[in-house]
Amino acid sequence: MAKDSKSQEISKEQAQKFLSKVPEENVFWCYDGRIFKDMKELAEGLVKMPDEVFAYHANSEKNDFSNWVRDVIKDEKLADDLAQATNKAQAAGCVATRLTYLIVQVT
After folding, report:
1. Measured between alpha carbons, how far is 75 from 69 in angstroms, rounded to an integer?
2. Do residues 65 and 36 touch, judged by C-beta distance below 8 A?
3. What is the pLDDT of residues 13-29, one digit of tens each?
4. Is the Cβ–Cβ distance between 19 and 40 less than 8 Å?
5. Is the dihedral of CA 15, 19, 23, 26 positive or negative?
6. Do 15 and 106 form a contact (C-beta atoms < 8 A)?
7. Is 93 or 2 the better-scoring residue by pLDDT?
8. Which helix (H) or strand (E) holds 28?
């Protein structure tokens, strides 16, 4: 895993971009009515999200979280990690780990 983070090093500017709020028209609309505007809100939302809501967005046919992170936030690494997550706890862990890494990059 250390190899991964080494090969994925990013600039402070790129980290800030990943951490910033997305334009209003690109927010993530969750099945239960919650709205995520940035990676921090996604991290917090995944922790609190009921399993059935997670399963609605991430299942064998689709992964809305991975797609949103890839297409809107533009963080390929996190999108790939989310695509591999098999449950809500893993997905929340992926986002929390990436969030911590990005915050360190901008400080």
Report:
1. 6
2. no
3. 999 999 999 999 999 99
4. yes
5. positive
6. yes
7. 93
8. strand 28-29
**Distance of alpha carbon 23 from the chain centroid:** 16
pLDDT digits (tens, 9 = 90+) for 54-94: 999 999 999 999 999 999 999 999 999 999 999 999 999 99
Question: Do residues 8 and 78 touch, judged by C-beta distance below 8 A?
Answer: no
Asked whether the beta carbons of 16 and 43 are under 8 A apart, the reply is no
What is the token pair recorded at 17?
Answer: 């971009």
Return the SS3 of 59: coil
CB distance 98 to 76 below 8 Å: no
Closest by CA position to 22, among listed 4, 9, 5, 36? 36
